[in-house]
Amino acid sequence: MHFVVADDDCRDFQSVLEFIGRRWVGAVLMAGAQGARRFTEYRALAPGISDRLLAQRLKELESYQLLRREVIPSTPVQILYTPSPTGAALIAALQPLIAWSRSVPPAGGDQRP
């Protein structure tokens, strides 16, 4: 199989892969895909992530316009994070990769849980 890909496309694709490959970015994106909206819901769906790193990843995903941040003026103030249309498109584009990852042995020969 042979694919023709322009150099600019390779660079753009590489930068996207580097971003989504950063620690916890994928888990936070998938938590949003599973319906997380509040900080605590994201934390519950990404067990092991620290509050500081989760806050950082949410801000980064918002800055890349992959998540939308909505402030609800209530007592206490609620902040909701939901996938943006761009984020939803990325999540949809990742679905074949997620399916593929289930079909290959884990790196290092580790067993899947």
From TrEMBL:
Superkingdom of origin: Bacteria
The keyword Cell division appears for this protein: no
Keywords: DNA-binding, Transcription, Transcription regulation
InterPro entries per UniProt: HTH_HxlR, WH-like_DNA-bd_sf, WH_DNA-bd_sf
Pfam families: HxlR (PF01638)
Entry annotated with the keyword Glycosyltransferase: no
Domain HTH hxlR-type residue range list: 10-109
GO function terms (MF aspect): DNA binding
Entries under PANTHER family matching the protein: HTH-TYPE TRANSCRIPTIONAL REGULATOR YODB, TRANSCRIPTIONAL REGULATOR, MARR FAMILY
Protein name as annotated: DNA-binding transcriptional regulator, HxlR family
Naturally occurring in which organism (per UniProt): Paractinoplanes atraurantiacus
